[in-house]
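Action item from last week, closing it out:
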Amino acid sequence: MQIFVGKNSLLFCLLSFVLFMAFIEVGYAFGLRYAKKYPSRESWGGGAIEAAVLALFGLLLAFTFAAAQGRLEERRKLIAQEANAIGTAYLRLDLLPSHEREFLKGKFREYLDARLRAYEALPDLKKAYEELQGSEQLQKQIWNEAQAAVRREVWQPAAILLLPALNEMIDITTLRTMIAKSHTPSVVFLLLYVVGMITAVVSGFGMAKTPGRNWLHRWVFALVVSLTLYVILDLEFPRLGLIRLDAADQTLTQLRESMN
């Protein structure tokens, strides 16, 4: 699904619009042929089927949209949690001796810079992955140095406070990575698209019951559904399309500024 967002978003919208219009026309053509064969309106029937298909498509759209929106909000919350975790661990570095404290604070600044650069690099996935790998190396350095600093018995109280904070800081990155890779399964999105096409055919078939071509209804249906599908994809892959998380990232940016 990721290939349909970013640079290909306009192409996806246009392709979806054309396909929905085409399937409406297919249904309309079937409807005209059926009308010639069975001119009596009583013989058409199928109203309950049309309503059921439209209702199913509406439910699929609603549930998929709600799930994508929920994941976006979860991403925003995790950014705030990461900022809190890093800020807490950074403050607890003051419990360490001056030499170790200043060294680790420098590493923290490097680490947060790498985290910010990783997400600023998107939609350049290659560069973003490189920055994330660099931040993981810095995580290991920070953890090893902190362990070495609190190993002496006199600094055991610092270990009790600092190491859990560092552990939370590291764990939150795993959660962010997991939620970033969590999306609506491709088969569900494919089902949504297929049901949408069937709905377009059924709608076109129903339009043949009335004389003349109502182009407004065709355009509105195809446009609204195409835009809704695109927004769902954009919600699934924020930073790659129109939907961004820049406002949430300001929490990390402000934290970095406070470290200077």
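Closing note: The first helix runs from residue 9 to 37.
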